[in-house]
Amino acid sequence: MARLANWLRLAALGVATTIMVAAAFPAAAGVDLPKLEKGKGEKCVEDTQFMRKNHMDLLKHQRDETMRKGIRTTKHSLKKCVECHASEKTGSVAATKEDFCAACHSYASVKLDCWDCHATKPGAQQVKKSTSNSSRVTKSASSVSPLMASSISGGNQ
Amino acid sequence: MANEVCLNQESCKPEQFWGLLALGGLVVLGAMYAFFTLEHHGHVLTGMNNQIVWGLPHVFAVFLIVAASGVLNVASIGSVFGKKLYKARAPLSGMLALSMLAGGLAVLVLDLGRPDRLVVAMTYYNFKSIFAWNMIFYNGFFAIVGLYLITLMNRNLKAYSGTVGLIAFLWRIALTTATGSIFGFLVARVGYNSALMAPMFIIMSFAYGLASFLLVQSAMYKWNGLLLDERILSRMKNLLGVFIAASLYFTVVFHLTNLYFAKQWAFERFILLDGGVYTNVFWIGQILIGGVFPLLLLFSPGTRKSIGMILLASLLVIIGGLAQMFVTIVGGQAFPLVMFPGFVESSSFYDGVVHAYSPTIWEFLLGMGGVGIAFFLTVAAVRAFKFLPQDDFHSLESKDA
Amino acid sequence: MNNPSENNVDKMEDRRNFLKVGAMVAGATVAPGVLFYGVAHSRAPEEAASIGVRWGMLIDSAKCGDECDDCVTACNTENGLSGETGPQDTQYIRKLNIKDLRNGRVHSLPMLCQHCENPPCVDVCPTGASMKRADGIVLVDRHICIGCRYCMMACPYKARSFVHEPLTDQNPEVPRGKGCVESCTFCVQRVDRDEEPACVEACNANGHQAMLFGDLMDPESAISQALKTHASTEVRADLGLNTGVRYQGI
């Protein structure tokens, strides 16, 4: 009786393993890999394989440079990534599972924390830089770019 | 099946054991439900807001943490001060301290805005923050008291229990000092910025801890069918009375000093006179229920010898402790910040008005989850380990200093 | 053993070396200040925020309109805030109306994060998420904020807010999200572009000109000149925080 139970347990384990392994085969063969939309422009700031392996390190390093030191280079700026890679259809990088970031991340089952805070859609207006080089502290009224008014709904949803 | 975990019981009642575990588990499940709801929808579902940022969960959590460090006192009196009556109860005290601390910490962590970042909290430290030091103290407490339990219960390591017990005692003093300083170091708020906060929390931890220990001890003995010699309770109740009196003393000194400063009058009037729920909870909860009534029960000729009355006094002390935490934590935040003394302030951000707080069921469930975790762990541990000494009271009495 | 003339020669050598090293050290100490003075006015994006700059604000409450809240509206628009004023809604800046109990005099002023030099919120943050940037702007690093709200307890000005709900459609310049604490950033995204905070710009635009923003460490800046010529105070000066925001007329 006990031996039958043991045999049954072994059989169940074998079946479970086969199913799981079998499910992996098509994926390994490349059938279910996510199809990513091409971003805007000719090419990305770094080459694809480099980005695949290192984008998380770039992001983690850049965030401290920008946040803590105020260094705002555009090459590895998250805002610029969103501007190029936002989907044509949804205008976002993570609104649906087909969008750029969400596609790979839902495939790899790695939770995305960034978009809790960062905007998934590019800003409506490009903020124009001040053309004059003189210090703002001597000007009485600033004449630079308009406030980003129209497309920002913001706040509690 | 339950017989395998029936190590130190006179009569094994498996239904009761599993029933108690199920009760604790149910409370914990309630807290889990509350946690997942809040994590998904955000703290918008709670009564906590930008004015009252710490609410009911923190009342429960800080109480559990302070009481946990006080519970260890029983063991310390045994190991550090050599009182045999307490030394026999040291393992139970150590285990209860761990389970209550676990419960309190669980509530704190689950209430964070981003509990998924607990690893961040463990790896990024700002050593100027007393909160960061608290995290170090809490984690160290688990390690040190765990080690202490091992030295207490392992025959070969018993010799070290004195040294480890001393370290545990000092560590727990540091921990409670740091917990009180969380509030004491806040220069911004009139209800908090006081060096008295740390020692007040230490004294209150003695009272809350001993009261919790007495209740849990009696309950565990009863539920496991063991007999607790009444004289043990009679001896310990005097110490409880001393701690309650000391807590009242600190409260009096705190408020008396505040009353001397003209700039603190408004806050004192708020707490002592016209703060509505905070005034009521202070006088009835903290002073009467938590202080005066237990003292009467413990020392009046009619009731001081009754075990039931001693246990009732312990229960009242715990209720009073929760009331004190409510007045300190929530009341201290409810009183508006004074940015312009001598002026009346008003704004869209609730300046100049007493801040409203209506706790919701989610906060209550979360807070009770801490109690549930402590309960669950204690019931299970007592069943599995020999935490309940069967004392020979005569031998203890004769050898006791 | 040493005869006196040799001692004198040794001492001369020592003195010479001391003067040389001293001059070098002094030069090295002064030089960055000289350089910083030069670059204080505009900063390339690749440059870090500089410790030679300290951003500050001077608010003249006499010029502040009692019913006006243009600064609040501008801030809400710039930072993507909802503008609602429920107990759980974020407000970076608010209009504070104060009435003197002794004589009934009423006036109003904007209250925002004071960007203290010794910020209590930075001291109490367990992870170091609440931080002060080199140029004096106090910020919350939302990458490591765990949402414990201790900084909200610590701030004497109640400047901080907690995000109670999931947010979408944030301003890409101002990332903010559920579970983290936030407060006025002096519009750091604008300051880094050599612009003024939105509130200051709006106050100047509507003619009140009650708010002046600039570099406190630059003696030639308008704010430094104003602070030198007119009396100003800090709110809760007794706390010794050395705030970046100063007020006149209170």
Write a concise keyword list for the protein shown above.
heterotrimer, A: 157 residues, mainly alpha, 42% helix, 0% strand, elongated, disordered C terminus, C: 250 residues, Alpha-Beta Plaits, 3-stranded mixed β-sheet, 9 strands
Task: Outline the structure in words.
- Chain A is mainly α and 157 residues long.
- Chain A contains 4 helices and no strands.
- Chain A has a domain at 38-123.
- Chain A is elongated, with a radius of gyration of 24 Å.
- In chain B, 70% of the residues lie in helices and 1% in strands.
- Chain B has helices at 14-41, 56-79, 84-87, 90-110, 118-123, 130-153, 161-184, 197-223, 230-260, 265-274, 277-299, 307-334, 361-384, 393-399, and one strand at residues 343-347.
- The model of chain B has no long low-confidence stretch (mean pLDDT 91).
- Chain C folds into 2 domains: 1-39; 55-248, Alpha-Beta Plaits (2-Layer Sandwich), CATH 3.30.70.20.
- Chain C is globular, with a radius of gyration of 23 Å.
- In chain C, strands 8-1-9 form a 3-stranded mixed β-sheet.
- The longest helix of chain C has 36 residues, at 4-39.
- At the A-C interface, helix 2 of A face helix 2, helix 6 and strand 8 of C.
- Strand 1 (343-347) of chain B pairs antiparallel with strand 2 (93-100) of chain C.
Record field, number of beta strands of chain C? 9
Radius of gyration of chain C from CA coordinates:
23 Å
Strand arrangement in the largest pleated sheet of chain C: 8-1-9
Number of strands of chain A: 0
Query: What string, H for helix and E for strand, traces the elements of chain A in order?
Result: HHHH
Terminal CA distance of chain C = 73 Å
Q: What's the SSE pattern of chain C?
A: HEHEEHEEHEEHHEHE
Beta-strand share of residues of chain A:
under 5%
CATH architecture verdict of the largest domain in chain C = 2-Layer Sandwich
What share of residues are in beta strands of chain C? 15-25%
Shape descriptor of chain C reads globular
- Number of continuous helical runs of chain C: 7
Overall residue-averaged pLDDT value of chain A:
74
Sequence stretches where pLDDT stays below 50 over 5 or more residues of chain A:
125-157
